[in-house]
Structures are given as C-alpha cells and as structure tokens.
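General statements about sequence and structure are easier to judge against a single worked case. When preparing material for the folding task, we compiled for one chain both its residues and its backbone structure tokens. The amino acid sequence and the backbone structure tokens for this protein are reproduced below:
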Amino acid sequence: MAPVTCLLRYELKAGREADFETYGRKWITLVNRFGGQHHGYFMPSEGASDVAYALFTFPSLAAYETYRAASAADPVCQALFKELPALMHRYDRTFLRPVLDGMEPQ
C-alpha cells in the first residue's frame, strides 16, 4: 500500500485570491481531520498569476477514496464545495506517488 499525493491546480477568478486563501485554510483542517496530511496551499506571489496549488497526501488510494466519500457526506465540506465556483474558473487534479525519504548521495 503506497501513499498517494493529490496535486490540485486552480485557475482563480480575479480579485478572489483572499477569499480563496480563506477557503484553502478551511480545507487544510478538514483534510487532516479526515486522515490526510495537507502540505498547504500555494498562492500566487509575484506578477499577474492567477494560478494556485494545493498538495495533500493520504496513506493509500483507498484512504483517499474513503476521504472523498466522507467529505461528500459532511455538511461543512458540502458548504465549501458550493463556494468554489465563485472563487475559480477551473481546477485540475493529478495523483502523484511521493518520494518522502532521502538517502545519501553515492
């Protein structure tokens, strides 16, 4: 059973960055509560970028699917899902296999 990391890429609506950051801070707490490890949201910093990212890891794809089912039934999560269209144009989800431990260079 390998961990799985979800990378979310959001295209934000102009002027909604602060609202999106508030939205993201709520999800950090929720993902952690549902058994994941949230690595944070990464907001545009310099220039005219409208792209933000989020990364979180679950111990397995099965654990991620359990989170998806639980969040779909959770009223707090449902309220947040309804907020998202007002904050962004679109988002993409990519699943990655994390390498989280280091080793000495040879």
